[in-house]
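Need a sequence for this fold. Nothing fancy.
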């Protein structure tokens, strides 16, 4: 889970440096993992007040459930979220439209990271 924590910290830092990457999306994303039911991470998008953190900070608008390896691959642009959902590797609870926007947000993050 250390890799996930490191990635969440990197996303948090990137949001603090430049919150425009979220392009006006107002949402709380929560990430849960099949192999660790006790750990959750959230991505809270609220303009300049956006952040990413471990634990349940706020009520999620969209919850994504997967194995941590798929989360890492999706966050790094190596796994298409739509394909993961269609193949059953990703389960989504809540606002499906927000789940689709997440892919674009992660892609923007990856462009600035590389």
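Here you go.
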């Amino acid at each position: 889970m250390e890799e996930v924590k490191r990635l969440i910290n990197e996303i948090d830092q990137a949001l603090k440096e430049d919150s425009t990457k979220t392009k006006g999306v107002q949402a709380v994303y929560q990430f849960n993992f099949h192999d660790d039911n006790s750990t959750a991470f959230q991505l809270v998008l609220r303009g300049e007040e956006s952040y990413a953190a471990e634990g349940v900070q706020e009520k999620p608008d969209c919850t994504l459930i997967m194995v941590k390896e798929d989360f890492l691959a999706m966050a790094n642009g190596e796994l298409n979220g739509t394909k993961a959902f269609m193949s059953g590797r990703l389960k989504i609870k809540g606002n499906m439209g927000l789940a689709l926007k997440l892919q674009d947000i992660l892609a923007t993050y990856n462009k600035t990271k590389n």
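For context: Residues 18 and 28 are 18 Å apart (CA to CA).
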